[in-house]
Amino acid sequence: MRIPSFLSLSNNLQIANQGVRDVGTVAGNLCLLRLSADEPDRDFPSDLGLVLEAAGAKVTVLAGSEKKKRILTPAEFVLERDLGGKGMVVAKITFPVLTKEHVFRYLSPSP
Question: Are strands 58-63 and 89-94 parallel, antiparallel or unpaired?
Answer without folding.
Answer: antiparallel
